[in-house]
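Supplementary Methods. Inverse-folding protocol.

Structures were first reduced to a discrete structure-token string of length 221. This string, shown here, constituted the complete conditioning input.
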């Protein structure tokens, strides 16, 4: 099935911004530091990464490469921050440098590999995979029981799916380097399907995170 990448980009932008705005509205009306504001910001920044990718079609390849990769990494970092805030009473949060250093690394790598698409895609996918692995570890611990365990399992599953998608993307690029489109720096078909699965994972993770808040509220009552 053919997926038109520019159309898909704007659909995903609208969906992500709408979802992010909804979470932010809830976050502003809830307790500070419960992670909802950070999570909503994560979703919104993920939405921003799509139009930043789209400017590659307008001869702004270098700017697009750096900003897209920084935004994607920052989105995962904010998800880690949100989950850390949510469960700070159950385990110490990661140090700030652990959360934000990968974002800086992605920006540096993207800046120095603008003309080396395969190398850049592999290195940045590995950095974001490390972020996804940290998100998996945070989501999987501490283990609880009952409803909270089921809602947490959604976030664990989504985080694992993110990790697998990144690793599969690296494998596909390594095996099919000739697919890479020099105008946008990645294989168009691979990018289209990556975006579709990324949106599914984003929705899955967000629903899981919101249900974790709901289950905690029910336990407090």
């Amino acid at each position: 099935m053919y997926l038109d990448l520019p159309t898909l980009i704007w659909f995903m932008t609208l969906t992500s911004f709408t979802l992010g705005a909804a979470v932010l509205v809830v976050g502003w009306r809830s307790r500070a530091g419960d992670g909802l504001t950070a999570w909503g910001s994560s979703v919104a920044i993920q939405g921003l990464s799509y139009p930043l990718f789209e400017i590659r079609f307008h001869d702004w390849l270098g700017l697009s490469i750096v900003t897209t990769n920084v935004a994607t990494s920052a989105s995962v970092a904010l998800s880690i921050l949100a989950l850390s805030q949510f469960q700070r009473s159950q385990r110490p949060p990661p140090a700030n440098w652990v959360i934000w250093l990968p974002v800086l690394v992605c920006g540096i790598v993207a800046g120095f590999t603008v003309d080396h698409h395969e190398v850049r895609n592999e290195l940045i996918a590995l950095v974001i995979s490390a972020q996804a692995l940290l998100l998996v570890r945070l989501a999987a611990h501490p283990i609880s029981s009952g409803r909270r365990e089921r809602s947490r399992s959604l976030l664990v599953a989504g985080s694992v799916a993110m990790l697998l998608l990144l690793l599969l993307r690296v494998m596909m690029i390594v095996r099919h380097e000739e697919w890479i489109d020099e105008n946008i720096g990645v294989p168009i078909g691979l990018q289209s399907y990556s975006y579709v699965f990324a949106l599914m994972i984003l929705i899955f993770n967000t629903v899981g995170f919101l249900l974790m808040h709901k289950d905690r509220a029910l336990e407090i009552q």
